[in-house]
Structures
1.
Amino acid sequence: MRILVLLIICCSVASCSSLPEPIPKSTPEQTQFYSRSLQACVDELTHFKRTVQQQGVQDAQLLWLPQYPHLAFDRFSLSLIPELNSYRARTQWINYVTRQAAIQRKVEYQNLPDKSAVEFKNQKYCTSMLTRATLNDESFWHWLQQTPPEYPSDYQNWQRVVGLYPISTLFAEPSIHSEKKRIIGGFVEPLHDYSVVYTVSDKPELTATDMQSWFIQAREKSALEWPQLTDEQLTSLMDFHAPEFVIESVSLDDKPGEVEYRQSDQPTVNIQKPTLYVSSSYTRFHGKTLLQLNYSLWFPNRTAKSALDPYAGKFDGILVRLTLDSHGQPYILDSIHHCGCYHMVFALDPQLRFAARNPDIEAPITLQVPPNRNANTLNITLSNGEHMIKGVRWAESTNRIRHLAVLDYQQLRSLSIQDGGNKSLFDQQGMLTASERLERFYLWPFGVKSPGAMRQIGHHATAFIGERHFDDAFMLEALFQAPPPKFLTN
């Protein structure tokens, strides 16, 4: 009886704490780091966020804190804080987190059901004023490095405590190993008779020299060895390196499409519009910051294999991330489903070696992909129904393809709805609630909220045993040995 009461209490506390914490009227830091002349801007940006939260449309992709009302953080930007010791480094960093905050504010403003309480035009001016003030405030940077923000974990410890996590892992490990063997076994299975090849329509003509010069110039401008390319360069790289997806197509569930709202509260995947969602990110890799190109496909459903399939349900999808080396060439490929499940890591360079596995953390599936000098396209095969990767290889591009429209992943944070407004695909916790799976009822002891449900970038927990986040800045570094010296030079 006591255990049941404890479980109920924990569930009640978790249901409250999982929502964003209410934004206070003020914080000591706001008074300390922003002069009296800037308080009006601090109040306005904070008021906007409070209105957003009260109307239930707070975006979860980035971390926003009232101490920094003009900034928003991802795990990568937070990892750079200890290295912000020069004016150039601070300028590049604060411009990045300021831009991220501006994107977040825009999608939140678009999603507000009632915009009457917000004067949005002043947000840009206030951000500029606060950025200029903090950039030149040495005490601000000292305090930031002494007490850096921490991106919240997507693991909930209370679930592991109540679920007797140490014991649960003993029962789970054999099943996890068995599932990995099954997935790897799929790599030797023949391709289904009816498979469709999808890719972007037009690839730009880029040479290795072109791309290398872009990265050299970008690094020369950075005190952090951080290659920030122009939007035009990023678009060209995205299209040039876009993989071909070979999808076994047995049913309508195997057709990728565009995510949209057909009714105000019912998101769906329109398979009449084959779509590839793209975004960029960065990773820290043995002393270097490397650019990552993210490619995302969405499917209407994961097909049920039985009448009570715990993994089946509405929505499915895969996120493929291509990490480029310091010259802009494909280096590492890794992928997850949008639930954070089935993490796979592929070494594309023959010089890369996987590190010894950490016994305390569930390891992803790791494989080497042999190079092919005569091929220029990464070919990724997905199985029917569960959309599992069952093949990665270099191949010559084929003409027998169906074209994918390319959309910015950020559009999922603010989709049009029928009444003329906008709504995010994800809730304030970064979850797509319409995609819940039955597996959540027996996998909860491992601390992952709603296992199997699709979720937003920044909220992909990828291990049930131990903890690992897909967007952790040093995640790939932990999986690989330090590369040969030639890859650490320009």
2.
Amino acid sequence: MRKIAICDSCCETLEAMRNMLTAQYGKELQIATYPSGEELLRTWQKDERKKTEIIIMEVRSEEENGISVARQIQEIFGGVKTIFSTAQLECAEEIFEANPVYLLAKPIKQERLFEAVDRAIGQIEEGEAACVTLISKSFIARVRAEDIWYVESERRVLTVHSKEEDIRVNMKLSDLEERLPEYFVRVHQSYLVNMKQIRVFSAKGVELVDRRVIPVSRPRYAKAKDIFLQFLGEKEE
């Protein structure tokens, strides 16, 4: 079940959107409504369990600018997909500075509303597909594949070096390799590297953009080099 919040100063608009979404998605969508973005923000800050994955935010009302509220929500909570609604299309340029999923013109048309929500759900699903789950005896961690720089294996214990932290987990490197996207390359029996983070590739080692150097084994060098060239678009498959 996906969670969505609708923020609009017009009670009739709130009810109309709720009814349209309920008719289209049924129990697949849990809907919350708020008279303003400020009210939504206050509610989430008091109880983060009420946070939703998607918000439909009115851009202009008498008391607030929905764009600034949407930015605050992204800064505090992150990862929320924003759909803006407005009757003032002249502010569209400012709206797109906030990187919305969709812009709905008022009065809201049913087909446009469904298209916007479908797009937001699609982006969420793409992000989930790009994550890997790391399971240990004491924790379960979800990590975005793109945030992983490289993975190191030592005695069947993996250290996943990511953008935010290093995570240690009991797992085979080959098992994790199967679950990672195609932009990861095995350069050594004990190392997997995110090719998006490679600055220099040579037989002496792989230098990452942060200057860390990962060893490349002689038996894997030629194949890993070919894979990297294909990744760069320099060699046909």
3.
Amino acid sequence: MNRNLILGAGLTAIFVLAALISFVWVPQDVTQMDIANKIKPPSAAHPLGTDHFGRDILSMIMVGARTSIAVALVAVGIGMGLGVPLGLAAAARKGGWLDEIIMRANDLVFAFPSLLIAIMITAVFGASALNAIIAIGIFNIPVFARLTRSGALSLWTRDFVLAARVAGKGAARISVEHILPNVTNLLIVQGTIQFSLGILAEAGLSYVGLGAQPPTPSWGRMLADSQTMVSFAPHMALFPGLAILLTVLGLNLMGDGLRDRFDPKLQRARQ
């Protein structure tokens, strides 16, 4: 039994469940300010305390989970949806002009961190969760393209691919029917890791004001709002920080567990 996989899946499930519950119920309305109860420590009425506007921090974290998970999930979907076909095409045409163009374009994107891409996008279109998704998604494309190409190249010389060629199948059909199923495990593991990095990136972008905009709650902006109040209201920074930490930890543990599950050699080596 893989302990990392179970622990990681458990931690991740807690925040996914909190995000799903927030669609139908939260302890208090996150758009409702209550100045009379601002910066209150944890209590029976507010288990995690209140912020500088009197909003319930537990409710903010639940709705913020929805924002972070949605941004990271869609961004990973963009990265996979565009990066995987590009990686398959590059591997099928190894050494050709298409392979060279795809790889050099990947190098170009890698030269710009997601934060810099977000700054460029928001300078033109304005700050929003959608633009954060686009920025993180663009940065994910070369990650999946490189991984897919690397995994596919090791398969193109295998006997089952040579048999498919002899049977008259073209490169595109071989890539979809034979190569893609054999690199799916790699993509699942990398997708889990990129999901955790997407949550971190969303928090970072929101922290500097480039992510989800008010009144939509965001873990990163909650940290930004608390930075001048840590000395007398540490709970404002502690709980959203823990939410980010535990979610990312859970996803990384789950990715580590999936890697062991898909490659028993790694699991035996660690024992």
4.
Amino acid sequence: MGLDFSEEGVPDATTLLNFRHLLAEKGLQKKIFEVVNELLEENGIYRI
């Protein structure tokens, strides 16, 4: 993902929770889960 925690701070729990709530509010959790599963399946990592 290109994250370098030696140069950038790690998000705190409140930031992550707010992001999670935003995803739920917009109905994106299910869509993200579906896309990740599709990518895993396409790459032979996971089969539903």
